[in-house]
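From the pipeline queue, job 12 of 40. The input is one protein chain; the requested action is below.

Action: predict structure.
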Amino acid sequence: MPGGDGVDVLRKVSPENPSLLVVVLTVQAGVDTVVEVMRAGALDYIVKPVSFDRLEVSINNALKLATLTGEVSRLARRAANIMDREDLVAESPAMRRTLELAQRAAASNIPILIEGNSGVGKEVVAHVIQGSGARAGKPFVVVNCGEIPDNLVESILFGYEKGSFTGATERRAGKFLEANGGTLFLDEIGELKPEVQVKLLRVLQSGEIDPVGTGKPQKVDVRVISATNQELAVLVSEGRFREDLYYRLNVFPIVVPTLRDRREDIRPLAERFLRTYSATEGKPIRGIAPRG
């Protein structure tokens, strides 16, 4: 290498590509050389002549680390509420259209209704909307409306004052206040009882909540993203969901397709899960066999 050696290259490459994993081959086995190589950013070093078994172990370790690093990075972005469309597998036209709508929705602050079967990734799409817009990095609070006991829905959503009801031994901020400045994700919105639907409609119209036991409205700055695996329009026609709330929530509808409607994503999804499982469990799984 005219004008330098491998360590010089490594010193230039590592700062510009910190995620790049480098294995160094060297003829020098001295401790000083090893220390120099590792300080320059190498993941591993191998002394020549090369043992193919040693080389295979080193490369496999690098691939496992790359997979784990990518997964940790994705989870960190999700925890920090800064996920974007690159975090999702979307090779199918159907999923690309969904993410294009999500990108458009992220540019505004209007309510969004995400529809789709259970397990298709509605919450993940909501995370992408949050992480792609002005509220990225702000609170992202999830409420599963179908899992809250009927007598606690109002206090959980809007909060309550100490002594406002039996068992209220201290003041609690509700989910709207927890999400202030960020996003409130209301999953299974179709499960809300009619009396809570009225109060939710009032919050969406006024931007104010009434914590239980206060009698004093509080201003909140919350973007509401709702999700359902039911057809809300059918619930409206059956009188089980308020029509005015439906139109307030359904300003920007997004449908997340099922896997049968995005078959092009099945293999890359399976490969992602396989790589993560292989790396985390230490299982030497090379890939997925073609259909027999």
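Job complete. The chain has two domains: 6-79, 85-263.
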